[in-house]
Specification:
14 helices; binds ligand TLP; alpha/beta; Aspartate Aminotransferase, domain 2; globular; Aspartate Aminotransferase, domain 1; three-stranded antiparallel beta sheet; seven-stranded mixed beta sheet
Length: about 350
Protein backbone atom coordinates (compact mmCIF):
# COMPACT_ATOMS: atom_id res chain seq x y z
CA UNK A 1 0.00 0.00 0.00
CA UNK A 2 1.43 3.44 -0.89
CA UNK A 3 1.79 5.89 2.01
CA UNK A 4 0.60 9.39 1.20
CA UNK A 5 2.10 11.51 3.93
CA UNK A 6 0.34 14.87 4.18
CA UNK A 7 1.14 15.54 7.85
CA UNK A 8 3.64 18.25 6.97
CA UNK A 9 6.03 19.49 4.31
CA UNK A 10 8.80 18.53 6.74
CA UNK A 11 8.42 14.79 6.04
CA UNK A 12 10.20 14.87 2.68
CA UNK A 13 13.27 12.87 1.67
CA UNK A 14 16.25 14.78 0.24
CA UNK A 15 16.28 14.87 -3.57
CA UNK A 16 18.93 12.85 -5.48
CA UNK A 17 20.73 16.15 -6.26
CA UNK A 18 20.80 16.96 -2.54
CA UNK A 19 22.25 13.56 -1.64
CA UNK A 20 24.98 14.01 -4.27
CA UNK A 21 25.77 17.53 -3.07
CA UNK A 22 25.93 16.32 0.54
CA UNK A 23 28.29 13.46 -0.31
CA UNK A 24 30.62 15.78 -2.19
CA UNK A 25 30.41 18.84 0.08
CA UNK A 26 33.61 20.64 0.94
CA UNK A 27 33.55 21.18 4.71
CA UNK A 28 35.43 22.83 7.58
CA UNK A 29 34.78 23.89 11.17
CA UNK A 30 31.89 26.34 10.96
CA UNK A 31 32.40 27.58 14.54
CA UNK A 32 35.70 28.96 13.21
CA UNK A 33 33.78 30.30 10.20
CA UNK A 34 35.75 27.86 8.04
CA UNK A 35 33.08 25.74 6.38
CA UNK A 36 33.07 26.91 2.74
CA UNK A 37 29.71 25.29 1.99
CA UNK A 38 27.99 26.89 4.99
CA UNK A 39 29.54 30.22 4.02
CA UNK A 40 28.26 29.80 0.47
CA UNK A 41 24.72 28.98 1.66
CA UNK A 42 24.66 31.95 4.05
CA UNK A 43 25.79 34.31 1.29
CA UNK A 44 23.30 32.86 -1.16
CA UNK A 45 20.35 33.22 1.24
CA UNK A 46 21.36 36.78 2.13
CA UNK A 47 21.58 37.71 -1.57
CA UNK A 48 18.19 36.16 -2.29
CA UNK A 49 16.61 38.26 0.45
CA UNK A 50 18.73 41.35 -0.23
CA UNK A 51 20.23 41.36 3.28
CA UNK A 52 23.87 41.88 4.25
CA UNK A 53 24.53 38.50 5.85
CA UNK A 54 23.11 35.07 6.71
CA UNK A 55 23.46 32.54 9.51
CA UNK A 56 22.82 28.81 9.08
CA UNK A 57 20.94 27.39 12.08
CA UNK A 58 19.61 23.95 12.96
CA UNK A 59 15.87 24.63 12.73
CA UNK A 60 13.10 27.18 12.40
CA UNK A 61 12.66 27.14 16.16
CA UNK A 62 16.34 27.91 16.70
CA UNK A 63 16.09 30.71 14.14
CA UNK A 64 13.14 32.36 15.90
CA UNK A 65 14.66 32.09 19.36
CA UNK A 66 18.12 33.28 18.22
CA UNK A 67 16.52 36.33 16.58
CA UNK A 68 14.42 37.16 19.64
CA UNK A 69 17.46 36.76 21.92
CA UNK A 70 19.39 39.11 19.66
CA UNK A 71 16.71 41.80 19.41
CA UNK A 72 15.52 41.68 23.04
CA UNK A 73 17.03 41.59 26.51
CA UNK A 74 15.50 40.11 29.65
CA UNK A 75 12.16 41.74 30.48
CA UNK A 76 11.80 43.27 27.04
CA UNK A 77 8.62 42.63 25.09
CA UNK A 78 7.87 41.18 21.66
CA UNK A 79 4.51 41.86 19.98
CA UNK A 80 3.35 38.81 18.04
CA UNK A 81 0.23 36.98 16.91
CA UNK A 82 -1.62 34.62 19.25
CA UNK A 83 -1.55 31.98 16.47
CA UNK A 84 2.11 32.49 15.54
CA UNK A 85 4.44 29.51 15.58
CA UNK A 86 6.86 31.40 17.82
CA UNK A 87 4.14 31.85 20.43
CA UNK A 88 2.11 28.70 19.94
CA UNK A 89 4.59 25.92 19.21
CA UNK A 90 7.97 26.87 20.64
CA UNK A 91 7.58 25.96 24.31
CA UNK A 92 7.60 29.63 25.30
CA UNK A 93 11.32 29.43 24.53
CA UNK A 94 11.82 33.19 24.38
CA UNK A 95 10.55 33.43 27.99
CA UNK A 96 12.21 30.25 29.22
CA UNK A 97 15.62 30.97 27.71
CA UNK A 98 15.69 34.73 27.29
CA UNK A 99 13.28 36.20 29.86
CA UNK A 100 11.47 37.85 26.93
CA UNK A 101 7.84 38.80 27.49
CA UNK A 102 5.38 37.85 24.73
CA UNK A 103 2.60 40.36 24.10
CA UNK A 104 0.12 38.52 21.93
CA UNK A 105 -2.50 40.21 19.80
CA UNK A 106 -5.09 38.30 17.76
CA UNK A 107 -4.08 37.05 14.34
CA UNK A 108 -6.70 38.04 11.79
CA UNK A 109 -8.03 35.12 9.69
CA UNK A 110 -5.46 35.97 6.98
CA UNK A 111 -2.58 35.75 9.45
CA UNK A 112 -2.03 39.49 9.67
CA UNK A 113 -2.10 41.63 12.82
CA UNK A 114 -4.47 44.61 12.78
CA UNK A 115 -2.53 47.90 12.63
CA UNK A 116 -4.57 49.40 15.48
CA UNK A 117 -3.86 46.32 17.64
CA UNK A 118 -0.12 46.67 17.02
CA UNK A 119 -0.20 50.42 17.74
CA UNK A 120 -2.20 49.84 20.93
CA UNK A 121 0.21 47.16 22.13
CA UNK A 122 3.35 49.30 21.87
CA UNK A 123 4.27 50.31 25.41
CA UNK A 124 4.82 53.89 26.49
CA UNK A 125 7.79 54.76 28.68
CA UNK A 126 6.35 53.92 32.08
CA UNK A 127 8.10 52.41 35.06
CA UNK A 128 5.36 49.77 35.33
CA UNK A 129 5.75 48.42 31.81
CA UNK A 130 8.16 46.14 30.03
CA UNK A 131 9.91 47.80 27.10
CA UNK A 132 8.61 46.91 23.64
CA UNK A 133 11.54 46.01 21.38
CA UNK A 134 10.23 43.83 18.60
CA UNK A 135 7.29 43.03 16.32
CA UNK A 136 7.22 39.53 14.83
CA UNK A 137 5.22 38.50 11.75
CA UNK A 138 4.86 35.09 10.11
CA UNK A 139 4.58 34.65 6.32
CA UNK A 140 3.05 32.35 5.12
CA UNK A 141 1.01 31.99 8.28
CA UNK A 142 0.89 28.32 9.27
CA UNK A 143 -2.16 28.29 11.56
CA UNK A 144 -4.07 30.77 9.36
CA UNK A 145 -4.48 28.42 6.36
CA UNK A 146 -0.89 28.96 5.25
CA UNK A 147 -2.00 32.35 4.00
CA UNK A 148 0.56 34.43 2.09
CA UNK A 149 0.68 38.02 3.33
CA UNK A 150 1.06 40.82 0.78
CA UNK A 151 4.05 43.12 0.27
CA UNK A 152 2.10 46.30 1.12
CA UNK A 153 1.04 44.87 4.47
CA UNK A 154 4.59 43.77 5.34
CA UNK A 155 5.89 47.25 4.45
CA UNK A 156 3.22 48.95 6.54
CA UNK A 157 4.14 46.95 9.65
CA UNK A 158 7.81 47.75 9.06
CA UNK A 159 6.83 51.41 9.00
CA UNK A 160 4.95 51.10 12.29
CA UNK A 161 8.03 49.41 13.79
CA UNK A 162 10.33 52.16 12.50
CA UNK A 163 8.06 54.94 13.77
CA UNK A 164 8.25 53.47 17.27
CA UNK A 165 11.97 52.62 17.17
CA UNK A 166 11.19 48.88 17.17
CA UNK A 167 12.71 46.02 15.18
CA UNK A 168 10.76 43.73 12.85
CA UNK A 169 11.35 39.97 12.67
CA UNK A 170 9.73 37.82 9.99
CA UNK A 171 9.31 34.08 10.55
CA UNK A 172 9.54 33.14 6.91
CA UNK A 173 9.65 29.38 7.41
CA UNK A 174 7.56 29.26 4.22
CA UNK A 175 8.45 32.68 2.79
CA UNK A 176 9.07 31.21 -0.66
CA UNK A 177 5.58 29.68 -0.66
CA UNK A 178 4.28 33.20 -0.05
CA UNK A 179 6.44 34.68 -2.81
CA UNK A 180 5.40 32.04 -5.36
CA UNK A 181 1.70 32.30 -4.43
CA UNK A 182 1.71 36.09 -4.64
CA UNK A 183 3.91 36.20 -7.73
CA UNK A 184 6.43 38.51 -6.06
CA UNK A 185 10.10 38.33 -5.16
CA UNK A 186 10.77 36.96 -1.67
CA UNK A 187 13.10 39.91 -1.03
CA UNK A 188 10.22 42.34 -1.57
CA UNK A 189 8.22 40.70 1.24
CA UNK A 190 10.99 41.42 3.75
CA UNK A 191 12.48 44.61 2.33
CA UNK A 192 12.34 46.48 5.63
CA UNK A 193 12.59 43.55 8.06
CA UNK A 194 15.52 43.59 10.48
CA UNK A 195 15.66 39.80 10.62
CA UNK A 196 14.15 37.06 8.52
CA UNK A 197 14.26 33.30 9.01
CA UNK A 198 13.69 30.89 6.14
CA UNK A 199 13.41 27.10 6.47
CA UNK A 200 15.19 24.80 4.04
CA UNK A 201 13.48 21.72 5.44
CA UNK A 202 9.83 22.69 4.91
CA UNK A 203 8.58 22.96 1.31
CA UNK A 204 12.11 22.96 -0.10
CA UNK A 205 12.83 19.35 0.94
CA UNK A 206 16.29 19.76 2.50
CA UNK A 207 16.87 17.37 5.41
CA UNK A 208 17.54 20.09 8.02
CA UNK A 209 18.30 23.72 8.61
CA UNK A 210 17.12 27.28 8.43
CA UNK A 211 18.90 30.51 7.55
CA UNK A 212 18.56 33.79 9.43
CA UNK A 213 19.30 36.91 7.38
CA UNK A 214 19.88 40.52 8.41
CA UNK A 215 22.52 43.25 8.74
CA UNK A 216 26.17 42.28 9.44
CA UNK A 217 26.01 43.58 12.98
CA UNK A 218 22.79 41.69 13.74
CA UNK A 219 24.13 38.43 12.31
CA UNK A 220 27.33 38.83 14.33
CA UNK A 221 25.25 38.95 17.52
CA UNK A 222 22.87 36.20 16.36
CA UNK A 223 25.93 33.96 15.86
CA UNK A 224 26.63 34.32 19.59
CA UNK A 225 23.01 33.42 20.37
CA UNK A 226 23.24 30.37 18.12
CA UNK A 227 26.38 29.22 19.96
CA UNK A 228 24.81 29.45 23.41
CA UNK A 229 21.77 27.56 22.14
CA UNK A 230 24.11 24.71 21.22
CA UNK A 231 23.86 25.40 17.51
CA UNK A 232 27.56 25.67 16.62
CA UNK A 233 27.57 22.70 14.24
CA UNK A 234 31.20 22.26 13.04
CA UNK A 235 31.28 20.47 9.61
CA UNK A 236 27.71 21.56 8.90
CA UNK A 237 28.52 21.90 5.19
CA UNK A 238 27.11 18.40 4.65
CA UNK A 239 23.72 19.87 5.55
CA UNK A 240 24.27 23.28 3.98
CA UNK A 241 25.03 21.55 0.66
CA UNK A 242 21.45 20.28 0.55
CA UNK A 243 20.27 23.78 1.48
CA UNK A 244 22.06 25.23 -1.55
CA UNK A 245 20.22 22.77 -3.80
CA UNK A 246 16.98 23.70 -2.01
CA UNK A 247 17.44 27.40 -2.77
CA UNK A 248 18.63 26.83 -6.35
CA UNK A 249 16.20 24.16 -7.54
CA UNK A 250 13.21 23.81 -5.25
CA UNK A 251 11.53 27.22 -5.10
CA UNK A 252 9.76 27.46 -8.46
CA UNK A 253 8.19 24.00 -8.09
CA UNK A 254 6.25 25.12 -4.99
CA UNK A 255 3.46 26.20 -7.36
CA UNK A 256 2.80 22.47 -7.97
CA UNK A 257 2.29 21.98 -4.21
CA UNK A 258 -0.12 24.91 -4.20
CA UNK A 259 -2.13 23.49 -7.11
CA UNK A 260 -2.32 20.09 -5.36
CA UNK A 261 -3.47 21.74 -2.13
CA UNK A 262 -6.15 23.65 -3.99
CA UNK A 263 -7.50 20.54 -5.71
CA UNK A 264 -7.45 18.65 -2.41
CA UNK A 265 -9.47 21.48 -0.82
CA UNK A 266 -11.97 21.48 -3.69
CA UNK A 267 -12.47 17.73 -3.37
CA UNK A 268 -12.84 17.89 0.40
CA UNK A 269 -15.42 20.68 0.04
CA UNK A 270 -17.56 18.22 -1.93
CA UNK A 271 -17.24 15.41 0.61
CA UNK A 272 -20.04 14.70 3.09
CA UNK A 273 -19.26 15.65 6.70
CA UNK A 274 -16.37 17.96 5.82
CA UNK A 275 -16.33 21.70 5.72
CA UNK A 276 -13.71 23.86 4.01
CA UNK A 277 -13.61 26.95 1.81
CA UNK A 278 -11.19 26.18 -1.04
CA UNK A 279 -10.73 29.93 -1.67
CA UNK A 280 -8.82 30.11 1.62
CA UNK A 281 -6.21 27.69 0.33
CA UNK A 282 -3.57 29.81 -1.39
CA UNK A 283 -0.38 27.84 -0.64
CA UNK A 284 0.35 24.26 0.51
CA UNK A 285 -1.57 24.07 3.82
CA UNK A 286 -5.14 22.76 4.03
CA UNK A 287 -7.22 22.76 7.21
CA UNK A 288 -10.49 20.87 7.07
CA UNK A 289 -13.26 21.07 9.65
CA UNK A 290 -14.68 17.59 10.30
CA UNK A 291 -17.19 18.39 13.04
CA UNK A 292 -20.21 17.39 10.92
CA UNK A 293 -18.78 13.92 10.38
CA UNK A 294 -19.26 13.27 14.11
CA UNK A 295 -15.81 11.69 14.25
CA UNK A 296 -13.07 13.12 16.47
CA UNK A 297 -9.99 14.26 14.52
CA UNK A 298 -7.75 11.68 16.20
CA UNK A 299 -10.08 8.83 15.21
CA UNK A 300 -10.43 10.04 11.63
CA UNK A 301 -6.65 10.41 11.33
CA UNK A 302 -6.23 6.78 12.49
CA UNK A 303 -8.84 5.51 10.03
CA UNK A 304 -7.19 7.39 7.16
CA UNK A 305 -3.79 6.10 8.23
CA UNK A 306 -5.07 2.52 8.00
CA UNK A 307 -5.69 3.23 4.31
CA UNK A 308 -2.27 4.78 3.76
CA UNK A 309 -3.24 8.46 4.03
CA UNK A 310 -1.66 10.53 6.77
CA UNK A 311 -3.06 13.85 7.98
CA UNK A 312 -2.35 15.68 11.23
CA UNK A 313 -5.08 16.31 13.82
CA UNK A 314 -4.68 20.00 14.61
CA UNK A 315 -7.59 20.39 17.01
CA UNK A 316 -10.45 18.17 18.25
CA UNK A 317 -12.39 18.69 14.99
CA UNK A 318 -9.73 19.76 12.53
CA UNK A 319 -7.28 17.91 10.32
CA UNK A 320 -4.33 19.48 8.55
CA UNK A 321 -2.88 18.36 5.22
CA UNK A 322 0.28 19.88 3.78
CA UNK A 323 1.25 19.12 0.21
CA UNK A 324 4.92 18.61 -0.48
CA UNK A 325 7.58 17.46 -2.95
CA UNK A 326 6.45 13.80 -2.90
CA UNK A 327 2.73 14.42 -3.39
CA UNK A 328 1.38 14.01 -6.91
CA UNK A 329 -2.05 14.88 -8.38
CA UNK A 330 -2.75 11.11 -8.36
CA UNK A 331 -2.06 11.04 -4.61
CA UNK A 332 -4.63 13.80 -4.17
CA UNK A 333 -7.15 11.76 -6.17
CA UNK A 334 -6.47 8.69 -4.02
CA UNK A 335 -6.71 10.73 -0.80
CA UNK A 336 -10.12 12.06 -1.83
CA UNK A 337 -11.28 8.52 -2.65
CA UNK A 338 -10.23 7.33 0.80
CA UNK A 339 -12.11 10.24 2.41
CA UNK A 340 -15.32 9.49 0.50
CA UNK A 341 -15.11 5.75 1.22
CA UNK A 342 -14.86 6.64 4.91
CA UNK A 343 -17.64 9.24 4.96
CA UNK A 344 -20.19 8.60 2.23
N1 LIG B 1 6.13 23.96 11.79
C1 LIG B 1 5.84 22.54 11.88
C2 LIG B 1 5.26 22.19 13.25
O1 LIG B 1 6.05 22.70 14.26
C3 LIG B 1 3.86 22.67 13.47
C4 LIG B 1 4.86 22.16 10.79
O2 LIG B 1 4.76 20.95 10.54
O3 LIG B 1 4.22 23.05 10.21
N2 LIG B 1 7.88 28.66 11.94
C5 LIG B 1 6.84 28.13 11.27
C6 LIG B 1 5.88 29.05 10.59
C7 LIG B 1 6.67 26.74 11.22
O4 LIG B 1 5.61 26.24 10.58
C8 LIG B 1 7.61 25.91 11.85
C9 LIG B 1 7.45 24.41 11.84
C10 LIG B 1 8.68 26.51 12.53
C11 LIG B 1 8.79 27.89 12.55
C12 LIG B 1 9.69 25.70 13.30
O5 LIG B 1 10.51 24.98 12.49
P1 LIG B 1 11.32 23.70 13.05
O6 LIG B 1 10.30 22.60 13.16
O7 LIG B 1 12.35 23.49 12.00
O8 LIG B 1 11.90 24.06 14.35
Amino acid sequence: MPIIDLRSDTVTQPTPAMRRAMAEAEVGDDVFGEDPTVNRLEKMAAELLNKEAGLFVASGTMANIACQLTHCGRGDEVILGDQSHAFYYEQGGSAALGGIHSRTIPNQPDGSLAFHDIEAAVRTDDIHFPRTKLIALENTHNRCNGNPIAVDYMNSVAEIARNHGLKLHVDGARLFNAAVALGVNARDLVADADSVSICLSKGLAAPAGSVVCGMHEFIHEARRARKVLGGGMRQAGVLAAAGIVALSEMIERLSADHANARSLAEGLANTKGLSINPDNVKTNIVFVDIVQSGMPAQVMAEKLDQQGVRLLPSGPNTLRAVTNYHITPEDIGYTLKVFSRLLE
